[in-house]
Amino acid sequence: MSLMQRITAFLRSPRGQQLVDRGRREMSKPENQARLRQIANRLQSRRR
After folding, report:
1. pTM (two decimals)
2. Is residue 8's pLDDT more than 70?
3. What is the C-alpha to C-alpha distance for residues 40 and 8, in angstroms, rounded to an integer?
4. How far apart are CA 45 and CA 6, in angstroms?
């Protein structure tokens, strides 16, 4: 099995679904969205 197939299989498993749901809940929080924007801005400024 390739790496992508293994990742896809995991994400479809019950444990994978729990992690996806947790990630969605965490990213719906405004403080986490702001933290992610700050990280993205730092990464973009390094590329220039």
Report:
1. 0.65
2. yes
3. 26
4. 34
